[in-house]
Amino acid sequence: MAISNKKIVLILVGVGLLFILLIAGTGGGIFWFVWEATGEPVRVTREHLDAINKEDYSRAYGHLSSSLKAELSLEDFTNLVRQNPQVFKTSDSTFSNRKIENDVCTLRGTVTAMDGGKTPVRITLVKEGGEWRIRGFRWGEGAADEDNG
Question: How large is the average pLDDT for residues 92-117?
Answer without folding.
Answer: 91
